[in-house]
Design brief:
Elements lengths: L10 E4 L2 E4 L3 E4 H4 E4 L9 E2 L7 E4 L1 H6 L5 E3 L8 E2 L17 E4 L1 E2 L8 E5 L5 E4 L3 E6 L16 H10 L6 E2 L2 H6 L1 E4 L2 H41 L13 E4 L2 E4 L3 E4 H4 E3 L3 E2 L9 E3 L15 E2 L7 E4 L4 E4 L8 E3 L4 E3 L3 E6 L6 H7 L3 H7 L12 H4 L3 E4 L2 H40 L10
Parallel strand pairs: 6-12, 7-11, 21-26
Antiparallel strand pairs: 1-2, 3-15, 4-13, 5-8, 6-8, 9-11, 9-13, 10-14, 16-17, 18-28, 19-27, 20-23, 21-22, 23-26, 24-25, 24-27
Helix pairs in contact: 5-10
């Protein structure tokens, strides 16, 4: 970055602290108009786009579906639409390019003020829906691409949290938002900040696409190797199939019931009478469908009975198994009893192969034939009777080795993605607060 004034000579003191002299503090109501919004049932929403479709931006989609700060209608495919006949004329305002949609409700503080900017609407009709506030720049004080970052300035984000109300769900009102003061750099500086942050967004998007490509490749490779469609030459002199009642399979492979392949560990840990402190894995600590953990808590602060696991064990979340939460343990520890601790029986299987076996579609489908409705749990007694195709141990070793290489490639990219996100977050704050300045093109 260039021309950053360390001694604050070119800065002024405001309610938000020191900001550059030529930056302004303005009220939302002085620079934006509030647009009418409306609420329709999710039953009125579908994804079959026609020329008459009216696009409907719901707060839940902003929280979970739209991952970028710009909602580009030329690029985004999963935008819900309404049946035109149910929309009343004059009931709401159709949005324009550059309009901001802000969610007015969130289950946590971090989600307060989440917003998107609309781009490339063209001739489409778009309305802002349930739990959203739509605003439009009426003074041309903000640059396209910069607008979604207005509320990400840490000072403004803190101010938003201050005006939020509620207990289980936090909300902001139009009245409170209209009184909110924001910090605005000059337009040319906004444009430069937006370009820098957009460059990070492009790098993040490229990395995410590469991760998805690698994940699809791994799934295809798993399908081929775990079913015997493809085999390594050292294990096959000539590719021959043996016949079983379940169909033809590689001659030296066999179908084995899951209960004969895997042992479900029953070892428990009681924190109330145990002096040892272990890393404790809860379901929330295992990422969906990645085989990664995102942290742990200390067992000493737990009160409930836990399952004990050891390095090399395979963990699988039995609660809501459709979430596909699994992990090959990298250390000894304990976990919630909502997680199965699986140990391969060495006669038939090794743990490094088991971690891939439980990622198979057949296994996931079996675990989802569950008990319970709101909180479904996988049924162990049903699972243990299912036969799975198992290769010899030496071939399992080679399969696991090859798939672990694919996993490592994905992990490297995921770490790169995390670094990019951290870098963007850091540079975003110093640019949005004026701590560092962008005076000319980078």
């Amino acid at each position: 970055m260039n021309n950053y004034s360390q001694n604050k000579v070119d800065y002024k003191n405001t309610k938000f602290g020191f900001i550059p002299d030529n930056w302004r503090v303005v009220r939302i109501s002085d620079g934006f108009s509030f647009l009418s919004t409306t609420s329709y049932s999710r039953n009125d929403v579908h994804y079959e786009n026609t020329p008459e479709s009216i696009f409907y931006i719901h707060y839940g989609d902003i929280h979970s579906t739209f991952k970028k700060s710009i909602l580009d209608f030329e690029k985004e495919e999963n935008i819900p639409v309404l049946i035109p006949s149910i929309v009343k004329n004059g009931d709401t305002t159709f949005l324009q390019n550059g309009d901001l949609i802000i969610v007015d409700a969130s289950e946590d503080y971090e989600g307060i003020g989440t917003c998107i900017e609309i781009r490339n609407i063209g001739n489409r009709k778009v309305i802002s829906g349930l739990h959203t506030i739509a605003i439009r720049d009426i003074e041309n004080n903000t640059a396209s691409g910069f607008r979604p970052y207005i509320f990400k300035n840490r000072h403004i984000s803190l101010a938003l949290k201050t005006i939020a109300t509620g207990s289980k769900v936090y909300g902001i009102s139009k009245t409170n938002l209209s009184k909110l003061e924001i910090i605005l750099p000059p337009i040319d500086e906004q444009q430069k900040i937006a370009r820098i942050l957009s460059a990070y967004d492009r790098a993040i998007e490229t990395t995410e696409k590469l991760i998805n490509k690698k994940q699809r490749r791994k799934k295809g490779l798993m399908q081929q190797l775990l079913t015997g469609e493809s085999r390594f030459t050292e294990f096959v002199n000539s590719y021959k199939l043996g016949k079983t009642k379940l169909g033809s399979i590689p001659k030296n492979w066999e179908y084995v019931e899951f209960g004969n392949i895997v042992e479900l560990s029953k070892e428990k840990y009681n924190p109330s009478n145990n002096v040892y402190d272990f890393k404790c894995i809860e379901l929330a600590n295992i990422d969906q469908e990645t085989g990664k953990i995102n942290g742990y808590i200390n067992s000493s602060i737990q009160k409930s009975i836990k399952n004990r696991f050891y390095k090399g064990d395979v963990l699988f979340g039995k609660l809501r198994p459709y979430l596909k939460k699994y992990w090959l343990a990298e250390f000894d520890g304990v976990c919630t009893t909502e997680i199965w601790v699986l140990k391969a029986k060495t006669k038939y299987c090794i743990n490094k192969y088991l971690i891939y076996l439980i990622q198979q579609q057949k296994f996931i489908e079996a675990t989802n034939r569950t008990t319970g409705t709101k909180m479904p749990r996988a049924d162990w007694n049903y699972l243990i009777e299912l036969p799975f195709l198992i290769p010899p141990l030496a071939e399992q070793q080679k399969i696991a080795f090859v798939l672990s290489i694919a996993d490592n490639e994905i992990k490297i990219l995921q770490k790169q993605l995390e670094r990019l996100k951290v870098q963007k977050k850091g540079i975003m704050q110093v640019l949005l607060t004026g701590e560092k300045r962008v005076v000319h093109e980078q």
